[in-house]
Design goal:
Blueprint (H helix, E strand, L loop, with lengths): L3 E7 L5 H9 L4 E5 L3 H8 L6 H7 L4 H8 L7 E7 L16 E6 L2 H11 L10 H15 L4 E4 H6 L1 H12 L22 H4 L1 H4 L16 H18 L4
Parallel strand pairs: 1-3, 1-4, 2-3, 4-5
Helix pairs in contact: 2-3, 5-11, 6-11
Length: 239
């Protein structure tokens, strides 16, 4: 039996890299970290931290990237961490039918607060909520079924139950190795991990969500308010 390709679509400043660690810790899984990032930066010409290094280290032809994503392994799982922001309007969509899809969402206010610390000039389009909404609707229309949705706040209250439910939705066996992993960076991490992955590199499992009194300025509140309707539409389907 051939393997499975699982695409996890997240926005930035979520638990997407911790989720990558969880899947990579399975013996039957290989992973890829944000395969469209180099293409996204080259095409949009946006100024991100480590921009030139990301482009130099990654594949910049989106068609070549797609071909690498839709080829299932002979057995086991090919897990793909995608940032929905990297989806660009000129991409074709037929290849999405070759993958199993999951959406990882997080309420926008803490995303805005966290992202603003790491990068200046934040806009709503940097956070991927509209792209997630678009992709969710598209995949639902193409497949006739709704992809699984994970809300990170709910997930962190009970990671094991959430992972077990997700694995059931995907038709694969749960593996307890998904609940903990060795600290440190991985060879599979994108080069950008040097800037973004300081917290997850110290982790050995899913940590409980920390309660914070968020203080957002007016511009940040406007961005969060713009993103919230997209978040709430997907939240309706969260496991």
């Amino acid at each position: 039996m051939s393997g499975r390709c699982i695409a996890m679509w997240s926005g930035p400043r979520n638990i997407s890299t911790a989720m990558l660690r969880a899947w990579e810790n399975r013996d039957d899984t290989v992973v890829v970290d944000e395969p469209f990032y180099a293409n996204y930066l080259q095409t949009t010409e946006l100024d991100h931290p480590m921009r030139e290094a990301v482009i130099a280290d990654g594949e910049t032809d989106w068609k070549t990237i797609v071909r690498s994503l839709i080829e299932p392994p002979d057995s086991g799982i090919f897990y793909q961490k995608h940032i929905a922001t990297h989806w660009l309007p000129h991409f074709t969509t037929d290849w999405l039918d070759s993958l199993d899809h999951v959406f990882l969402i997080r309420e926008p206010e803490p995303v805005v607060a966290s992202y603003s610390i790491k990068r200046d000039g934040l806009t709503a389009s940097d956070l991927g909520y509209e792209q997630q909404d678009f992709l969710f609707k598209l995949i639902h229309e193409r497949s006739g079924t709704r992809p699984a949705v994970i809300d990170s706040k709910r997930f962190l209250l009970d990671p094991e139950t959430q992972l077990r439910t997700l694995c059931t939705c995907l038709g694969i066996a749960f593996d307890e190795k998904m609940l903990s992993w060795p600290a440190g960076a991985r060879d599979s991490d994108g080069v950008w991990g040097q800037h973004w992955y300081d917290a997850v590199n110290c982790s050995t499992g899913f940590a409980p969500a920390r309660s914070k009194n968020l203080v957002l300025n007016d511009d940040q509140l406007t961005i969060a308010d713009t993103c919230r309707p997209y978040y709430e539409r997907l939240l309706e389907y969260a496991i």
